[in-house]
Amino acid sequence: MKKTAIELFAGVGGFRIGLNHVTLGADGKAIEENRFDFVWANQWEPSTKAQDAFDCYKFRFSKGNDDDEFSNEDISIVTKKNIPNFTLLTGGFPCQDYSVARSLSHEQGIEGKKGVLWWQINDILKVKKPPFVLLENVDRLLKSPSKQRGRDFGIMLRCFADNNYSVEWRIINAAEYGHPQKRRRVYIFAYKNNTNHAKSLIKIKPIEIFNEYGIFSKEFPINDCTSISSCNLKEYNDLLEISDAFKFKFENAGYMHKGVIYTTKVTPKYEKPIILNEIILHEKIDEKYFLSEVQKEKFNYLKGSKKIPRINKNTGFEYMYSEGAMTYPDLYENPGRTMLTSEGTINRSTHVVFDRLTGKLRLLTPVECERLNQFPDNWTSTMNDKRRYFMMGNALVTGIIKKLGNSISHYIDLED
Length: 416
Hints:
Blueprint: E1 4-8, H1 14-19, E2 23-24, E3 30-31, E4 37-42, H2 52-61, E5 70-71, E6 88-92, E7 100-102, E8 110-112, H3 118-128, E9 132-138, H4 151-162, E10 165-173, E11 184-192, H5 196-200, H6 206-213, H7 215-219, E12 222-223, E13 229-232, H8 239-245, E14 253-257, E15 260-264, E16 267-268, H9 276-279, H10 293-303, E17 306-311, E18 318-323, E19 352-354, E20 361-363, H11 366-372, H12 385-394, H13 398-413
Parallel strand pairs: 1-4, 1-6, 4-5, 6-9
Antiparallel strand pairs: 2-3, 7-8, 9-11, 10-11, 10-14, 12-16, 13-15, 14-15, 17-18, 19-20
Helix pairs in contact: 4-8
């Protein structure tokens, strides 16, 4: 079986970088090991006229005669059958409200909430039927929405089950497995039940999937778990009933087969992380990254402890909002904190460090932010600094994908 792949909601190419061990050549083009042949990628940003992420992706990966491989249009208007055939679907999609409703005619099945990108993935699964899927999302996906915990992920899992997939997932803090950022994300791996990989697991118990045989146990080892909770999605007639009634506590690891969900709380076998000291630049830094006195004072306030009286707009109830102090500046002996899209602005979450050469306080540079996500240096240099920070706040830690790619590549080899 050919190792072909597509990347949805591609951003600046984190999945492709991780899966193909990408480095950056002197000409600004990606140098790929080509473990996976990416035959198509879609990236479209509806909120801005400029398409910085798409432009970066295409510039880095284009070979000059392959424009059809790069799609810069709303995925909802893409004709799914026209997407090239592929073995692996990848994508990091937004966490949204996945509620569903009966169609007005009652004859067209169940419709998902408009504008929610999960349904575009589901449509592609129905049409293209890829044997393998690898997705990434924020960890709160497993708990959303707040008034019906677990509903949204339950809807996703039922979609996978209806499309004849089994699914494994794990919430991974990248820094706990040797990477340079405390970034917690849920990774979802799905595979068709008619694959050789699925058949090899038929007689394996869920507890053994968690501890030894699953993709996450192999690449991200855990201390053995012993307790599992479960439920059966097939007890619900359809997605509408799940949307209305399903509620379940998903733990940080799980497995679903034939609609039956198994979930457990796991603890990682800790690996020493890459620390800030190892990613900070050893060179003269542009003055624009250094803090002014006014900025220093703002950061002192933002990162300090505080108690602020607030009033609930709905109830009129007055309460005290509290925040604890953050480490300021960030310590070189720690990995980076979770990077947000506001990185580089005067914001509580922004990293601030002592500069190596001057001892002055400064922001991380865009290159250092790329290193926190294990991107090649200057990968996002096709755009201005503000957008570079934003892209890295939206990106994933590519080292996680690199590890998962090791197993996925092996699974595809077994399909031949």
